[in-house]
């Protein structure tokens, strides 16, 4: 397992993306599958900054990556406001763009693009686990 801690700021997103991308590439992810991983992590970290911390530079984001021959597991931990995804309403994808709510699409996209998405809260920590399997 490789773990790095980043400041909870938008300027950290590039470094977080590079850290995760390097691990994903090392086991064979590329192209659109790599893009899905990078985008899901970027969206999750942006949500941590905006919703868990309420603004930039309030707390850290701990990023852990585990790889094996079949998958990558990314764990994002923050120490902000507790998060329960059941309170996020599903986006109405049938609505016209101008009528859509601008919240909820990120979680929807994460669930569509990653194979496993688990939100947990433990003793003042929010832990998001994202898993993506390599396809043959």
Overall tally of domains: 1
The string of secondary-structure elements, in order, is: EHHEEHEE
Strand order of the largest sheet: 1-2-3-5-4
Low-confidence stretches: none
CATH fold assignment: Heat Shock Protein 90
Number of helices: 3
Radius of gyration: 15 Å
> Mind telling me which CATH architecture this is?
2-Layer Sandwich
Q: Helix/strand-derived class?
A: alpha+beta
Coarse morphology: globular
Strand count, sense and barrel status of the largest sheet are: 5 strands, antiparallel
Strand composition percent: 25-35%
Secondary structure tally: strands: 5
The helical percent reads 25-40%
What does this structure look like?
Helices cover about 35% and strands about 30% of the residues. It contains three helices and five strands. It has helices at about 15-25, 30-50, 105-115, and strands spanning about 1-5, 60-65, 70-80, 115-120, 125-135. It has a five-stranded antiparallel beta sheet with strand order 1-2-3-5-4. The longest helix has 22 residues, at about 30-50. It has one domain (about 1-135): 2-Layer Sandwich (Heat Shock Protein 90). By secondary structure, it is α+β, with helices and mostly antiparallel strands. The model has no long low-confidence stretch (mean pLDDT about 90).
């Amino acid at each position: 397992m490789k773990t790095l801690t980043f400041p909870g700021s938008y300027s950290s997103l590039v470094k977080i993306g590079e850290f995760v991308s390097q691990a994903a590439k090392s086991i064979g992810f590329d192209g659109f599958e790599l893009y899905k991983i990078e985008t899901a992590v970027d969206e999750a970290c942006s949500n941590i900054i905006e919703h868990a911390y309420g603004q930039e530079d309030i707390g850290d984001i701990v990023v852990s990556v585990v790889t094996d021959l079949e998958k990558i597991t990314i764990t994002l931990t923050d120490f902000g406001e507790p998060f329960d995804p059941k309170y996020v309403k599903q986006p109405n994808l049938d609505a016209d763009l101008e009528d859509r709510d601008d919240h909820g699409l990120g979680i929807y996209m994460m669930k569509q693009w990653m194979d496993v998405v688990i939100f947990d809260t433990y003793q003042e920590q929010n832990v998001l686990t994202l898993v993506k399997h390599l396809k043959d």
